[in-house]
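Why do we bother with holo predictions? Because pocket geometry can differ from the apo form. Keep that in mind while you read this record for BES.
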Amino acid sequence: MEIKFSALELPEKGSGVVIIGEDLKLSPLAKSLDRETDGMIEKAIKSGDFKGKKGKATSSVAPGKLDYVLLLGAGAKKDFADKSDFQGLGGNLYAQLNALRVKSAAIIVEDKRGKFASEEVAANIALGFYLRSYRFDKYFTKKKDDEKPALKNLTVLVKSPAAAEKHFTKIKPIADGVFLGRDVVTEPPNVIYPATLAARCEELEKFGVKVEILGVAEMKKLGMGSLLGVGQGSAKDSKLAVMQWNGAAKTKAPVAFVGKGVTFDTGGISIKPANGMEEMKYDMGGAAAVIGLMKTLALRKAKVNAVGVAGLVENMPGGNAQRPSDVVKSMSGQTIEVLNTDAEGRLVLADALWYCQDRFKPEFMVNLATLTGAIVVSLGNQYAGLFSNNDALAKKLTAAGEKSGEKLWRFPMGEAYDKQINSEIADMQNIGNEKGAGSITAAQFLKRFVNDVPWAHLDIAGMAWTKKDLDLTPKGATGFGIRLLNQLVEDYYEG
Ligand code: BES
Ligand code: MN
Ligand code: ZN
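The structure, written out:
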């Protein structure tokens, strides 16, 4: 996809796009486009039911040199509180143009909107457009050209194209990180397994990220019996990827992100039903977010020290698989009775979190995990669950969520839930002993491995994959968490 910024002049060919708010006012260039096309814009507004509502669009074949003119509803002022709203508009634009099967289009971004300068509006529309254009089609061998997207380029017409371009270059690393995240989630589990996902992490070295991969022997030495227990039923060796981006002074404590990277979750001996099991290829969505985020931070040379840790395992029911009732010892020294081998994510994170805080003494730790089906029951596909031992961190995360459009909803934690994971035979068990609150007892389990570090757990089970197209995401892997955590870093932890 080619995206260009250019001065406010009517396009010579392709399609023209006009953004119209609920006031139905046309900007000067939109007015000249209207004249150029025999008044078709005014006509469309007067005759049709196009009211400038957010997310609504109308198009018609244009007289003269242009192919189509598309009117894109921008809604009211209140619909544009954050830059993610402009990104959403851009994503919507991509979908509309793609449906028309036009090859190229130019969009007029004439005004500033609220507190946003026109170049910022332009750059964010472009980013949203680009995010929505994501495709993963490498495994099709017979796809015909007319089955592929026709849309090849977008020109954003704006008062100061150089400033808009500069702004876009600044935020484009977000999309680069998101695309990497989506790629590794979408890849099938015979292609992406712990060793190959670790190799994808190592590719970040070319952007200046320091990457270490720990193998089974090293993890054994560290005492990571909890993580290793999950992988022991698989023919694929487990790995731990440790990534570091150092963009601030050496003396500054890093911020840390930890991801669940279960490259496939069969459930192990507590095996899952066949129906829907294929979805468990995205059980490494937390790790994918961490990897994508590290790429974004490195590409935009963020002024922060950041650590990314990904626990990479495959949960399989092989002959050496762990059994329900096995007791394992974690790196923290705490013992765990594994009552359900399908509650494996927390076992992986237990050692990854402990390792991270023990080695890096981070300012805070945020982990991401497709951890529980219960969070999908609670929140569906609208919010990720937020669990934290620290109100200040939780507040910052929630704010970054609203701003980036990747929203979080905080859940309670506490003693009464914590005691539900006490075991009869070991320090704890990996599932709760009462009905209900499955997402919370999972979070309580993780909390036992973070000591006093400010920590938050994001349960993204409902967010890592989408079954329908969203404004910024064609159906499939979303890359959820990358925009959110990049926002968190940018707003609170740089400079
Ligand atoms: N990976 C699953 C959770 C999940 C479910 C992710 C749906 C995405 C969509 C996790 O490992 C799991 O199996 N959790 C169990 C825990 C239970 C055994 C306590 C669950 O949620 O059923
Ligand atoms: Mn599971
Ligand atoms: Zn899982």
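The pocket of manganese (II) ion (ligand 2) is lined by residues 265, 267, 342, 344 (CB under 6 Å).
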